[in-house]
Automatic annotation (TrEMBL):
Alphabetized Gene3D superfamilies for the sequence: 3.40.630.30
Coiled-coil regions, chain positions: none
Domain N-acetyltransferase: 31-185
UniProt-recorded name of the protein: GNAT family N-acetyltransferase
One example GO MF annotation: acyltransferase activity, transferring groups other than amino-acyl groups
Length: 200
């Protein structure tokens, strides 16, 4: 693991600044993924209010801190045309978030995700990540990774379940991060994701 700053992938920068735009709503078999907005504040307050949930996504925060994360995540949509989504069941119950993240010190575009405790263990994270990944490649993403702390075994399992492979371990903001590389899905995967109206 190198402590030196890793340059941003020029292909990722070009995509982010050059019109790579994600749909504002995605669908999977069980889930609806919605572009983040103020209506998702209670979800973020719950996510960042739980110490175990927030451990690897910036640490536990009070409601004001959770609002800051919501504003940052929602704001990236205005900057790039892509970002995180709120994950909901078809009945409207919110479960967590998943989507794309590309701050200025990230080498590549990342798929990130987090779920509330009662939404774990039933494949929702895998389903959301697969949906985001497939839609991102259809929209023109040049490559996708997930940066995962070595201690975050549940997140590693989610990445592995959708075929991501551990490529390297790097330093991000002074902490080790496993680079889990997402392979470009085949044409069949792309077609199946769009068959139910993934682009709204």
């Amino acid at each position: 693991m190198s402590g030196a700053a890793i340059p941003r992938d020029p292909r990722a920068v070009a995509a982010a600044e050059g019109g790579f735009v994600m749909p504002e709503r995605l669908y999977s078999a069980r889930l609806v993924l919605e572009r983040l907005g103020p209506e998702h504040f209670d979800l973020f307050a719950s996510l960042w209010g739980d110490a175990e949930t927030a451990r690897f996504i910036g640490g536990q925060r009070d409601p004001a801190g959770a609002w800051t994360f919501l504003a940052i995540f929602a704001g990236q949509w205005a900057l790039y045309g892509f970002g995180h989504y709120a994950i909901a069941e078809r009945n409207g119950r919110y479960l967590g978030f998943a989507g794309l993240w590309f701050p200025v010190d990230w080498p590549e575009i990342e798929i990130g995700y987090g779920l509330l405790p009662d939404a774990r263990g039933i494949g929702y994270a895998r389903e959301a990540v697969q949906t985001v990944r497939d839609a991102a490649f259809v929209a023109g993403a040049p490559g996708l990774v997930s940066y995962i702390a070595p201690q975050n075994l549940p997140s590693q399992r989610v990445a592995q379940s959708v075929g991501a492979v551990h490529e390297a371990t790097i330093a991000l903001r002074g902490l080790p991060a496993m680079v889990m590389r997402h392979a470009t899905p085949g044409a069949g995967s792309r077609a199946s994701n769009l068959s139910e109206g993934a682009v709204a």
